[in-house]
Each structure stands twice: as structure tokens, then as C-alpha cells.
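This entry is set out below.
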Amino acid sequence: MISIVILNWNGAKMMKKYLPSVIQHSKEAEIVVADNASTDDSLQMLKADFPEVRTIVLDKNWGFADGYNKAFEQLERENNANGTPLPDFYLLLNSDVRVEEGWLTPMLSYMDNNHDVAACQPKLLSDVAPNLFEYAGACGGFIDKYGYPYCRGRIFDTVEEDKGQYDSVMDILWATGACLLIRREDYWNAGGLDGRFFAHNEEIDLCWRLNLMGRRVVCVPQSRAYHLGGGTLPKGNPRKTYLNFRNNLTMLYKNLPANELQHVMRMRLFLDYLAAFQMLILGRSIGDFKAVLKARHDFSSWKSYFLADRKHIQATAKPLSKTIRTPFCLLWQYYAKGRKTWRSAIS
């Protein structure tokens, strides 16, 4: 059994446009919308237009990370109370994703045949330009030695055209939270998403922890989904900049092995301030500049709250997989060497 859970916050228009394809092409799944205390007419619209969709109403906006944790907890309480079996899989799906007939089959088949795989994602393409990969996850995610995320099909702002060049199933470090299929047991064994992150980098952190537990994460590009993207916090938003920098540093602190932590954090101190001043010089808003400085300050202030997590993760980590992190500096590959595609960057 699979439950597709769409976490919604003020997304009535998005759901009205994108939910029909999910309902039509996901007959093998239960469709659930978990509402993060929306102030628009999301719940009224769902009741009127999609009465077959199960709804879970959360008491406040818990963000992406804890929103999903709370939604899954409530779903399981309701199932237990009703005597309904719990799902074997959860699929986290953004409200602005369009799917096609048979989209779930390759992912579910791969998971059924590979029990060492905890989570996977489809090939994620742009709903606006379906010949292009979509920024949020493309064909599977990685991070470089200093924690910068990138994907097969997308490095920083360079998005590749999909020509079938990444159509092989591949182990990855992280699967996109825009469309993430995960075994229910693995989700809870890993501790779920870290609710303190609120949003951004939370799925990378979860998948990294799964890798360290000896569980695989893969991209199954025979499954495809089409993502609009940027619906909640548009690119260039200082709040998004803040969350990305703060959470990325926190993720590194939690998951990096002891013999690398000090070096990586020293380099990130330099690189983060370099990025902040570059934002200022290149004319981006002063808000983004301030967001990076605040992110670094707040990371320093709250990292002690993650010490217990770090000790547990490091104490229980299995031998590192080759997919954990790539051994180069992505900034150097991209800006100094001009290697702006996945294949050229890793060569």
C-alpha cells in the first residue's frame, strides 16, 4: 500500500490545476492532502472539487519538514483507530507536480526488487519546458566535499536539456522532496525529517542519514514527473537564502565525519562570506546579504542543540558509500573550469 501525501499551504490554485493528474494516474495509491493551516480556500475547494481525496488538517504551519512528520503521525493514528493497514510506502509530493499514466510503476517495481533501497525519486522535468530537467531534483542529487547540492541535469543555475543522457538507474545521495518515494519503516527508523529545519535541505539531511545507516537512495528515471517549482518561496527570497545557508551548515555539522568537520567548516566560513559579498556586489538585494550573515550567526547559536544528533549519527554510521559526497569543490569545477554539466563536473 502506498499513500501519496501532498503537503499544502495556501495552494488551492495549484492543487486545482495539478491534483487531477495525480488522481487519474495513481489508482494504486491513496491520495492525501495534509493542510498546513492554510488561510486560503484550500479545504473548501478540496471538499467541493475533490471529495475522494483524504484530508488531514494541521493546527498550524509546521513548515515542510515537521509538516510531513505531523501529517504522517496523524495519518497513522487515524488508520490505527479505524483498523486500516498502515502504508508500506509514503510518497512526498509537491502540490505543483503533474504526472502521467504509469508513472509510479517503475519506482515501485524497483523498490520491490531491491529491499536495500530506502527511497527513490523519478526523473523530474520542468512542467513549463518539458524538454528540460527541473531545478529541484532533476535526475538525482549529490553534494560536493563542502556541502553544495547539485544534480544529474542541474548544477547551480545551469539546467540541462533532457536527451536521455541520464536514463540509467543510479545510486544518489539525495532524492528531491518534490517527489520522494520512501519506505515507511525507513522514514521512521531514520527519525523522519528534521522539523527544526522548517524548510530547505531537510530531504538532503534525511537521505544522507539513510546512506549512513547503510540504506540506498536511487533515481529511477523510467518514472517521470513534471514540476512547476518555486511556488512557495521564489528564488531570490531572503528567507529562502537564510534557510538554505543555515540548514546546509546544520546538515554538515550533523553528518560529516569527525576527521573532516573542522576543515570543511573553516572553508565554508570563507566561502559563505565570499558568497554574501558577491550577492551584494552583483546587485542582488541587501536582504540576501543580510540573510547569509544571519544564517551563519544563527547556526553558531543553535548548533549545540544538534550535538546529541551528531553523536548518534556518527556512532551508528556504516562504512561510507561512494555516493555520500563527491570529492571535488563544485565551485571550482563550475566557475574556474567551466564544467557546468554533471558529466563534465565529475570527470
